[in-house]
Model the fold of this input.
Amino acid sequence: MNPPADTRPLTPVAPWFPRGVTLLHEPSLNKGTAFTHEERDLLGLHGLLPSHVCSQDEQMARVLENFHRLPTPLEKYIFMTALHDRNEVLFFRVIAENPDEMLPIIYTPTVGLACQKFGRIFQRPRGIYIDANDRGQVKSLLGNWPRRDVAMIVITDGERILGLGDLGASGMGIPVGKLSLYTACAGIPPTQCLPVMLDVGTNNLELRDDPLYLGLAQPRLTGVAYDELLEEFITAACELYPGVVIQFEDFANHNAFRLLAKYRNRICTFNDDIQGTAAVALAGLISALRVTGGALSEQRLLFLGAGEAATGIAELVAAAMAEAGSDLDTARGNCWLFDSKGLVVAGRGSLAAHKQAFAHEHAMVPDFAGAIRALKPTAIIGVAAVPGAFDREVVQEMSKLNARPVVFALSNPTSKSECTAQQAYEWSDGRALFASGSPFDAVTWAGHTHVPRQGNNSYIFPGVGLGAIAVRARHITEAMFLAAARALAAQVSAQDLAQGSLYPSLRDVREVSAQIAVAVAEVAFHQGLAGIERPADLDAHVRSCMYEPIYPRYA
Done:
């Protein structure tokens, strides 16, 4: 039986196109053993490769066989990073076709450990490093990047990496991982993605004393000097890459909120820790309400944590309640924060600005289980990276108050999770509606198998970025994240809910991202923020922007 005809268009080889060994060392163009005999003649590759021409499927099978032999997640992360460094298309094909297995390796939870080990597993640089000594030179430094079609930048200063704290320049694994998900989950072309590390030093003394640390081994730059460096980056990036989307990632609270406030109405930007986390949590709550019944405005939420994630979720939930007809102040009154000092209440001294909208009149409560008894919440949401904080007492108190208690243990990585899926189901007699930040296996309790799914931002930010890029949005707004949350929740089936899944399967993440991107694009047009004329078929336009990890044919 003859193989089907190859209908892919031919890609002409220009005179400047790399040849021979140079081509094999360029990951964005390299096909490895998949170069055909004709391409090998054309590109000077004969003798540089084994004689058998592999299909991409054969290559993927080889990758997966070797991947499965590796004993630890970190070794698998290193293996996939090496593949990324030599064959970009194959890397993204493997991820796109195996997201359930690959996303926990290339991103949370494994990326946290990879950042902690960054100086020891570093192999090849990826992205742009801007350090505290580069003031006055940032634009020329960005000019060293070989592409001018950058559409998406993820930038971090490494001060609050997941729940692990200040990892300085070792936090570069986060922007690299995020952008891999933009491509694998939403089809943003990898050539349009740029990870950036703003290396302003670290206050982590252990890192500063580590001879293998690769960043500036000095205290963090702060104040006016810090702001001037970041401003120089923003200005340069927007000049070099007009319309670029800039995502702030893993900045500490004291910078995250003010930087978002400073830039959100000036450039196309968002903070995923604040807004992406909020949207994915809101989507989970909407899904849970299909099980518990009742309106969103009737819910009372208690957050363990009072930082970026907690206040971001609370603000978006309050906005969703207000959009449904509630008074905004009343809606905020349904959201309560619990921090390291206890319940956040009005009259407590020295409250940070981002907490004040959720500091309500109430007596101080020093323990979380006591706060549950006092407030009678319908949902608890853990975003404080305090492992084990949702103990048996906490889950059982929630179960006394609610027939189906909503328990979201969203902290990353797994070592920081407030409780495991097994614990949530066991301590609630199988009644909990559970979601987590890191993946957990299915749990069988009393003859029923529960399939928990991650309330992971990878459901949200890729689609938001794709939608913004597809219509050249001038800003990313709260309404876009509300639309993203609803679009995500709409893709949760009755079968998902029956098995305890509040999110769709990661196997469907590219379709999820496409639907979210269309919803975001609709808002951009409605709010007058789109930079293109509305296409006749918006869905088709969005999908036409999505990169497919399939090899080109050279001629």
Q: What stands out?
A: The domain at 461-544 is CATH 3.40.50.10380 (Rossmann fold). The chain has 24 helices and 16 strands.
